[in-house]
From TrEMBL:
This is Alpha/beta hydrolase. The keyword Membrane does not apply. Keywords: Hydrolase, Signal. Transmembrane segments: none annotated. The keyword Transcription regulation does not apply. InterPro entries: AB_hydrolase_1 (IPR000073), AB_hydrolase_fold (IPR029058). Residues 1-22 form the signal peptide. GO terms for molecular function: serine hydrolase activity. SUPFAM superfamilies: alpha/beta-Hydrolases. Residues 61-174 form the AB hydrolase-1 domain.
Length: 282
């Protein structure tokens, strides 16, 4: 009998430890699912670059902007669901994924102008915007300077000053895995597959000093905004997320449980529900 109890205790321990590991999804970096088939895709000539884009579904438009070093395919789970009720636009930011870059220094104003030019190319006057990390910062830039182009802004894992970034991200294993994966993806997707290091060096110069918006600038945002973070975000300090939510008038703060900077991959269903609940709010 004692052997039976020992065996049962061992099985119970495995179940409990397995459940604990399952709860730690914020430590994982799942691969995105394959992208659905686009209704339209191509390259838009904007600001001296060729900007890759794809369009899915019909309805009120929503633009999804990926984070630094990434590409549009990170949004596959969100696109599949949102395209049922919306016209979904994704793109690769300048130098990222399939889009080209120039020698012009990176800046969030420049990247925001790329996306506004893409919307002009697609004849979209106004859209909801979902941005992750650098994409969220680009969204905030547009909300501050071109609010007439946005209906709502869902900004996840963004910051408005450089001191909002947690320095611990430099030694974080999940982030290291993301950077390595991004390098592999770059070699597969880019028109300059051997220039990943040069690309990273170029965009890193922007990250050293940007964004750097004052409280007064951020407080002028009038676009209905959600400031969003995983409760285990490795890169953005929680107090900075709280500061942004308090500073932007009427902003809603959304904290995604058991998720990190990469919440759209770790908790795709919950992430998409949060997006839909916010952008479709009447």
């Amino acid at each position: 009998m004692s052997r039976l109890w020992t065996a049962l205790a061992f099985v119970a321990l495995l179940i409990v430890s397995g459940a604990a590991r399952a709860e730690e999804r914020w430590l994982t970096l799942p691969e995105p699912a394959p992208m659905p088939k686009a209704e339209e895709s191509g390259y838009a000539p904007v600001n001296g670059i060729q900007m890759y884009y794809a369009v899915y579904g019909k309805g009120d438009p929503v633009l999804l902007i990926h984070g630094g070093l990434g590409h549009a395919d990170i949004w596959s789970s969100q696109v599949a669901e949102l395209a049922k009720t919306h016209k979904v636009i994704v793109a690769d930011s300048r130098g990222h994924g399939r889009s080209t870059r120039t020698e012009e220094p990176y800046g969030y104003d420049l990247m925001a102008s790329d996306y506004l030019a893409l919307l002009d190319h697609l004849k979209i006057d106004k859209t909801a915007l979902v941005g992750w990390s650098d994409g969220g910062i680009i969204g905030i830039d547009i909300a501050m300077k071109h609010p007439e182009r946005l209906t709502r802004l869902f900004a996840q894992a963004a910051n408005v000053t450089t001191d909002g970034v947690d320095p611990g991200v430099l030694t974080n294993k999940t982030f290291a895995a993301y950077i390595e994966r991004s390098g592999r993806d770059y070699k597969k997707l880019s028109k300059t597959p051997d220039q990943y290091d040069a690309f990273v060096a170029q965009i890193s110069k922007m990250w050293e000093t940007q964004p750097n918006w004052s409280k007064e600038q951020v407080a002028k945002i009038t676009t209905p905004t959600a400031i969003v973070a995983g409760d285990h975000d490795e890169a953005i300090k929680r107090e900075h997320t709280d500061y942004m939510a308090k500073t932007i008038p009427g902003a809603k703060e959304i904290i995604l449980p058991n998720a990190s900077h990469f919440a759209m991959l770790q908790a795709p269903d919950e992430y998409t529900k949060a997006v839909v609940d916010f952008i479709d709010q009447k």
